[in-house]
Design a protein that fits this description.
Strand content: under 5%
Structural class: mainly alpha
Helix content: over 70%
Shape: globular
Mean pLDDT: 88
Number of strands: 2
Low-confidence stretches: 1-25, 379-383
Number of domains: 1
Order of helices and strands: HHEEHHHHHHHHHHHHHHHHH
Number of helices: 19
Radius of gyration: 22 Å
Distance between the termini: 18 Å
Largest sheet: 2 strands, antiparallel
Length: about 425
């Protein structure tokens, strides 16, 4: 989730090469970088609005979700659910990265190994810290019910690691399909997703929908391939407007006549067909806004913000909820001010709390930020061992298994320990071989 998506050299209006080097944004698609930063920050804000902690009359700590209790919440997710757009942008990054790797003679296995390492490395300290915190809380006798609520909430963003790892493993294959059979690929993935949802709703077996971790997210990733290949950039603006309008106008039909929930967050895990519709609409809107956003990104302040936040994107995403819970825990321990969740004071306090959490995450990145960067390459005279498909499959399983389990059952101490063991093993398997 870093802002490292290259799309050929791009230059700003400033002719100052020193400033360009200082911002280190040469060769990037700055609009895509901006969109990814906006997605990460919006996720932080939404989660801050969803966590309400108070102490009841009996002195017990209670947790609520004030945002979800609002009558307008479900409809607001039609704009606020940005994960489809994030996977589109990830598809753009994957397409450009894989194209560059092929030009350098990197094999598919080596490339996937590198992508998995960059995904897993920043998550290692998160799992280690969460495992240690849950162990200490358990030994101290914290109320198991409260601990379960807190752990489940803190671990909720970790589903992304499983879903994104699945899409990364498929990048070389899906890129080849986009080059050779783009339309057929889109239709096949969309049809498969519809059939999975139909089987899920007709059978009543929710777990059937887990197959759409593959079909929905690969479809959305494929939209990013279309952006990278110039498809959407060549589309008439009137067509983009029509498609975007059709996407959002279809949501009332899908969520009233159809079986899907109007709450796009409720349809996230397992992912459902409306997320594909959102993804199409969101990338059309982003494409329409590109000229305006390019002018914004020609300014030095905008570039500086994108670099500062984007280079810490994964850290902010993975750490924002643990840090939010830590801040609330300190307030509870010190008897600090905790406005009644849902009150006017509580809503007004959300902005400063969100800024505090992002600031703390940036502070954490001073210690862990290097984990978001590619592993240091070996010297030219050192021959890296070849990476086999079997090694990549094992490492991918080590990344996916604990995060997938967290998505299914919520985080607890055993799963935190499993992640703290499995992810470092995956990195150890792949890092020496990744390119």
């Amino acid at each position: 989730m870093t802002a490292s998506m290259h799309a050929g050299p791009r230059t700003g209006r400033s002719g100052d090469p020193a400033a360009a080097r200082a911002l280190d944004l040469s060769g990037r698609d700055l609009v895509v970088d901006l969109a990814r930063v906006a997605c990460v920050l919006l996720v932080v804000v939404i989660h801050v609005l969803m966590v309400g902690v108070a102490v009841d009359a009996d002195g017990a700590v209670t947790a609520t979700q004030p945002l979800t209790e609002q009558p307008w919440f479900a409809v607001s997710t039609w704009a606020g659910q940005v994960m489809p757009l994030f996977f589109v942008l990830g598809g753009f990054a994957s397409a450009t990265s894989w194209a560059s790797a092929r030009r350098r003679g990197v094999t598919a296995s080596e490339h996937v190994a590198g992508r998995l390492v960059r995904l897993a490395r920043p998550a290692v300290p998160v799992f280690v810290v969460l495992a240690a915190a849950l162990l200490v809380a358990t030994l101290l006798g914290v109320d198991p019910a409260l601990l379960d609520v807190v752990a489940t909430g803190v671990g909720s963003p970790l589903w992304f690691l499983a879903a994104y790892a699945i899409t990364q493993v498929a990048v070389p294959t899906m890129a080849r399909l986009h080059e050779t059979r783009p339309a057929v690929t889109f239709v096949t993935l969309a049809t498969a997703a519809v059939l999975v949802d139909a089987a899920r709703w007709s059978s009543g077996v929710t777990d059937v929908g887990l197959l759409n971790l593959v079909f929905v997210w690969l479809f959305v990733q494929q939209l990013g391939f279309a952006v990278a290949s110039g498809w959407l950039g060549r589309a008439p603006r009137l067509l983009l407007v029509a498609v975007a309008a059709a996407c959002w106008l279809s949501l009332p039909v899908l969520t009233t006549v159809g079986p899907w929930s109007p709450d796009m967050l409720a349809g996230l895990n397992p992912p459902t067909v409306p997320l594909m519709v959102l993804g199409v609409g969101q990338i059309c809107v982003l494409t329409l806004l590109r000229p305006l956003l390019e002018r914004l990104m020609a300014t030095t302040p905008a570039r500086a913000v994108v670099l500062a936040v984007g280079s810490r994107g994964m850290t902010i995403y993975l750490w924002h909820l643990p840090l939010l819970i830590a801040v609330l825990g300190v307030c509870l321990a010190l008897g600090g001010p905790l406005p009644e969740p849902g009150s006017a004071a509580w809503w007004w306090s959300r902005g400063p709390v969100a800024l505090l959490v992002v600031g703390l995450a940036c502070a954490v990145s001073l210690l862990t930020g290097r984990l978001e960067q590619p592993p240091r390459r070996r010297s030219a005279d050192v021959v890296s061992p070849p990476v086999g498909v079997g090694v990549v499959v094992v490492a991918a399983a080590l990344v996916v298994a604990p995060t997938f389990a967290v998505m299914l059952w919520g985080l607890d101490l055993p799963l935190a320990i499993a992640g703290a063991v499995a992810l470092p093993l995956a990195v150890q398997l792949l890092a020496p071989r990744a390119r």
